[in-house]
Structure formats: C-alpha cells, structure tokens
Amino acid sequence: MTQTLDPVSSGATGDVAVSSGATGDVAVRAGAGTPQQRVDAWLAAFETALAARDVEAAAGLFATDSFWRDLVAFTWNIKTVEGRDGIADMLWSRLGDTDPSGFRTTEEPTEADGVVSAWISFETAAGRGEGHLRLTEEGAWTLLTTLQELAGHEEGKGMRRPRGAEHGADPGRVTWSERREIEERELGHTVQPYVVIVGGGQGGIALGARMRQLGVPTLVLDKHDRPGDQWRKRYKSLCLHDPVWYDHLPYLPFPDNWPVFAPKDKIGDWLEMYTKVMEVPYWSKTTCTSASYDETSGEWTVEVVRDGEPITLRPRQLVLATGMSGKANIPSFPGMERFRGDQHHSSAHPGPDAYAGRKAVVIGANNSAHDICGALWEHGADVTMVQRSSTHIVKSDSLMELGLGDLYSERAVAAGMTTHKADLTFASLPYRIMHEFQIPVYDAIRERDRDFYDRLEKVGFDLDFGDDGSGLFMKYLRRGSGYYIDVGAAELVANGDVALAHGNVRELTETSVILEDGTELEADVVVYATGYGSMNGWAADLMGQEVADKVGKCWGLGSDTTKDPGPWEGEQRNMWKPTRQEGLWFHGGNLHQSRHYSLYLALQLKARYEGIPTPVYGLQEVHHLS
Ligand SMILES: Cc1cc2nc3c(=O)[nH]c(=O)nc-3n(C[C@H](O)[C@H](O)[C@H](O)COP(=O)(O)OP(=O)(O)OC[C@H]3O[C@@H](n4cnc5c(N)ncnc54)[C@H](O)[C@@H]3O)c2cc1C
C-alpha cells in the first residue's frame, strides 16, 4: 500500500514566542539555529511545560493546525488530537498519570521544505516510548508518541533473551519440550487463558506471538486444520499484492531470498512455521460458536468446539482476529436458486481448472474480481466482468516505485531504512492530512501510466482515483475496498480479452445472468466478487446483534467519502483499541498493520493483565452500526 515521505506544505507562518506561566518565559524561536538546536529547544520547552503540568504552555508549543497522534503512550488508546484545544483537552485529562519525561532526539534531525523532522524517545510512568516530531516555524506540526514497552515488563529479547539451557546438574530437570507439553495440556483446561484470540490468520498469529513474548497466557483459535490454511485455501493463482518489505511478521523477518510477491501457499507455510517457532499457543480445528460477557465478574464465557469436543473457555479479554476480508458479502439475486451452473463467493472460488472452455461471469471489479478473471482467462475460459461502480486501478510497478519505495523496498533497505522506522514514519502521518501526501503520488502515477488508463477508459471501464484523487491507500483505510493493484488482469480488460459489462444484476436464469438494462450473459459459473462486511458482523454472529451494535462499525476513518460516512473519527474505527464493549477487541488488516498495531494491542492487554491502570482517553463514539 502507498506511502510517501514528501510533505506538500509545511504550514509555516512565522516565528512564535511561547510563554510558560509555571516555569518562567521560554522563548522557542523555532526558526532559529540548526535542526538539532531547534528540536532540542522545542523538546526542552515541551518537557518543562509538561513537568510543570502547564497544559496551556505545552499546547502553545504546537502550530495552530497541528496533530498529536498517540499510540497508547498517553491515552491508553489509539488517538489523534487536533489543534491546540484538542491537545490541551487530552493533556488536562492524561498528563498527571502519564508523567512524561526524558524527551530527547535519537538521531540528528533533518530539514526539508521548511519542516524539521526528528526521531525522539521519552519515558512515561508506565514505560518507554518512541516518537516523531515535525516542526515548522510556528511550532510542532505533527507529533507521534508510541508506547514501545512497559517498565518492569520488558520482553525477553536482545540483552534480555532467555538462556535456554539451565547449566549445572539438576535431577528434577524438566526439559524445554516437557515444559511445552505441560503448558499445552493445561492451557484452556486447568489453566484459563487471560486472552482468547478468535481467528488464527496472520493477525491472530502475530498478536499471539507478541502475547507469548509478553508472558500473557493466550490461546489462538482457528477453524482450519492448520495455521496458514487461510491462505492455502484461497484460489490457486493468488499471490500477495504487497511486496515482501511491507509484509514481515513481528520478530522474524522473511529471509533475503523471499520472493517479492509471495505465492499464497508459501505464505501459508510461513505462517505455520512461524506459529511453531514462536511457540504461539494455537488450537486448530477449533470453532468458536458463541461468547458472552459477564459485567460483574469481568469474564467471558467462550464456547468452542475443538475437533468435535465442546469446551468452555473463560478469558478476561477476547480478541476477534476473524479477518477484515473474512466475512463474505454474499448478494441475494432473484433466480440464484434456479441457476444450474456453479456459483460461489470469491472467497470460496476453487480456482480456474474446472472452467477451461466454459463461460464465466464475475460480479465485481475490484481485487478479487480481477485476479479471478485473469486466472480464468489464462485457463481458457470465456470471461465477463460485471462492473457496478467505479474502481481504482494502480499498476503494481508504479505503486512500488512511486508509492512504497521510500519506506518499503530494497532501495529503502540499502539507504538504511528499517521496518521499524518505516512503520513509525508511516504512523507519524496523521490521517486527517494523509490524503494531501497521497494526491501528488497518484497524480504522478496517472501521468506515468496515462496510456494504460486511456485504454481502460476506452473499453468503458469506470475508473476512479478515490473521491479526492488520493488513490489506493486512502481507499483501503477509508473503506477497505474499491481498488485493484494491477498485476496483469487490468490489461486483459483494457485489450478486451476479458469482456466488460456494467450495472446491477437483475436476476439469474438457469443458464445466465441478466443485468438491469436487460443484457443477458450466458454463464456456466458465476463468481460473486462482492467483497466483505464490517468486522462487527463477527461480533453479531458470536455475541448477538446487541453487542455488534454497541461497538458499531469497524474500519474507516469517517472521511465522508464513498462508503466511509462521517463524522470524522481520526483513527480507524474499533481497530486495535478499546471498544464500547469492555474486554472486546478487534485486530486485523494487512500484514503491515498486523505487524505494527499488534504491538500496541499487545501492550494494552499486557497492562491489563498486570493490573496497571489503563484509563482510556477519548473512547470512540459509535456513529454507524455496520
Ligand atoms: C486477492 C487478494 C489479495 C490480497 N493481497 C494481500 C496482500 O498482498 N497483503 C495482505 O496483507 N493482505 C492481502 N490480502 C488480504 C488478506 O486476505 C488479509 O490481509 C488477511 O487475510 C487478513 O488476515 P487476518 O488474520 O486478519 O484474517 P484471515 O486471514 O481472514 O483469518 C481469519 C481467521 O479467522 C478464522 N475464524 C473466523 N471465525 C471463526 C470462528 N468462529 N472460530 C474459529 N475461527 C474463526 C477463519 O478460519 C480464519 O482462518 C489479499 C486478499 C485478497 C482477496
């Protein structure tokens, strides 16, 4: 997905002198001195104001248009506050408990286009944090603060790695594998997990690995026979659309010989290997059938069936990692029951082999529709794609070069970019202004691939670049749909090899699909590539509609663009953060998000496990139910 480092405007408006009532006058001439001096002066003034609990002075160090994005460090939430008033409100509520200190740069700040950028670290009462600061002449433009570890509960890694061997002679020695066997025997039976994660795809596995590292008894459950089956069972031509540099899991990056776009079975095998190597407690062949929360005891009753055996689990925290692209939207068209050919949702598509020489109609024009049309065409099917609304298409090469290249590429690695730094760089861009960074990238892509887009439009393909021209990644964050990263199938549409039809389906007959304008498409197979529903649909299935409505829609930013209704939320709804249902969490997204946000979710869960107070600032309102 798309990230760029170039700001379009600094919002610079001139020098500002900030007076700190509690600590005497501190003049922060943000425009004077080297980038290092300017950042040092700002951080010193900020720390002085915070230490004096002088909220007005601290907020005054920010520019009028400014953003403070906090990942758990101050807010025990994932929250962006905007402008001096928003910042002051958060600090009034959270400054005392957070007790931040020790703000310092971790490398030399840089300056570009009037914006000074700095990597910072700091401490809070609860732990250690890292962050990023962008300064203009008016003060702080963006500030990112993230909690990286809880003091006293650091992970056993690096200098703290476990010894493994217990040297010496011990007649009562219990070996590593014996200890693992005991753990496996007890967890979920005589020992209750503190956290149950329903869904053992990449999301559940990554979070499970982090929970294990943090020493929180956690169980990951999945319906499938083996970890990785989520990918193995998808259609056979599927490869990741995101490149390897974007896809690493926590702790264990892919090796240097890993393909740029991993085929789905290879990803499946990696997930299985990862689960084993990271010792993620994982129950395969286990379906969660229901869950209910007892407000008084603060405990969930989670009913599962493990390989035919019903088991009741009683965790205090329940995470749904059941897949953002997991709950299939299956349309209901008149006549579906009389259609004599094969018909299935894209998630159940078996692949093209059975359809050589057959007529295939694929309903939808996004990622899955394109992939499936391409594979069917390659196997000699006669394929028609039915497009109902516009789609954003971006060529994979262009995306890699112009979108991702600065952060996630071999070029970025060669320039010293680490996955951690790339993730934090991306996290440092507040969602409110992210589209401004994206629009120029997609303008450049449109120019570079003009001929391709012209040809697509010439065959009648309804193309868009997002409501505001901000392209793929904003569409992904806002609605999680409406795009295709072109790895070849769009060419087939552009050159007419895959036929294109438009409009809604009116009905199916025994042998065809009829569109609203009367167009009849003969079909031996109909694939409904009609997308996926909001993750709170999983909550409805397992806990009832009342709980689903209590937490509301998952995903989306409230951007008031197509399929992402306002009001503005500032962060993705319900993801990786406290919800309106105590003890219920949602985790998911692409591999990048699974990797990065699993840390913040894990730290929130660990803090609760250890009884560390976690007062949440700005628990989100529910504006939409699905
Ligand atoms: C064409 C295509 C290309 C894609 N390309 C990429 C890409 O390049 N990069 C990327 O990151 N993503 C890509 N995706 C999206 C990918 O599907 C998701 O990112 C990924 O599957 C999300 O992982 P997850 O762990 O959140 O959910 P899933 O992989 O969907 O796993 C959820 C798991 O929950 C389990 N589950 C659900 N309900 C229950 C229950 N009641 N009890 C027990 N288990 C349950 C399911 O069995 C499933 O295994 C692509 C998708 C498609 C269709």
From TrEMBL:
It holds the Pfam family Pyr_redox_3. This is NAD(P)/FAD-dependent oxidoreductase. The keyword Ligase does not apply. Gene3D superfamilies: 3.10.450.50, FAD/NAD(P)-binding domain. Signal peptide: none annotated. Keywords: Oxidoreductase. InterPro entries: Auxin_biosynth/cation_transpt (IPR050982), FAD/NAD-bd_sf (IPR036188), NTF2-like_dom_sf (IPR032710). SUPFAM superfamilies: FAD/NAD(P)-binding domain, NTF2-like. PANTHER family: FLAVIN-BINDING MONOOXYGENASE-LIKE PROTEIN (AFU_ORTHOLOGUE AFUA_4G09220). It comes from Rhodococcus olei.
